Amino acid sequence: IFSVSDVLFDALQERLKLFVLMLRHPIWLIEVWYNLDWYGRIGKDSREFQLCIENREYTVPWFAYGWEKEYYRLSPLEQAIRVIESISRREEQKFIQLSDEDRGKCLLIPYEQFVVNPQKYLDEVKDKLHTKETKLTERIMEEFNLPRKLEVGYIDRKKEEFDKLLKKENVSMG
Q: How many Å from the N-terminal Cα to the C-terminal Cα in the chain?
């Protein structure tokens, strides 16, 4: 949503105090997109709603606009890779295009770091919003099992699993 958030920044202006962007590792996003068959659910599963763009030849999700033919030519794993790459690039471009003031309203939080050390990011949110933690904060942290301990080598193991998936599906990243 961040890459198309102009309307939020324009409508809220100075009332927008904080825009939190939770960033997941791209390997995890690609893996989830592929394993949960999100590409196959779009337009078929009522629980997976995406805005779509329709032209004479194709109907594609909004994030494939501009590369419709490629979207349909790619295998499911290649689609997942290309979609995550496209969305990530749009988000990066959006962040760069923001004014200094609006960029200062954004808090980028790497998910894998957040789950291990949520307090660091909660402190940033509290500082930016001039607020404090409550008992509800503590309860929510417990419900979501925060902080967590990531197993040693978790990211390396995910990369190895991803490499195996690429080989299995005969997909080259070069």
A: 28
Residue identified by tokens 């690609």 is: 30
31 vs 161: CA distance, rounded Å: 9
| Closest alpha carbon to 83 in 32, 125, 123 | 32
Q: Is 121 exposed, middle or buried (0-12, 13-18, 19+ CB in 10 A)?
A: middle
For 14-70, the pLDDT digits (tens) are 999 999 999 999 998 999 889 888 877 876 778 877 888 887 887 888 888 889 899
pLDDT of the residue at 49: 79
Residue that is written with structure tokens 């500082």 in the block: 127
Contacts 24+ apart (CB under 8 A), 141-149: 146/115, 146/118, 147/115, 147/116, 147/117, 147/118, 147/119, 148/115, 148/116, 149/116
Q: How far apart are CA 114 and CA 1, in angstroms?
A: 20
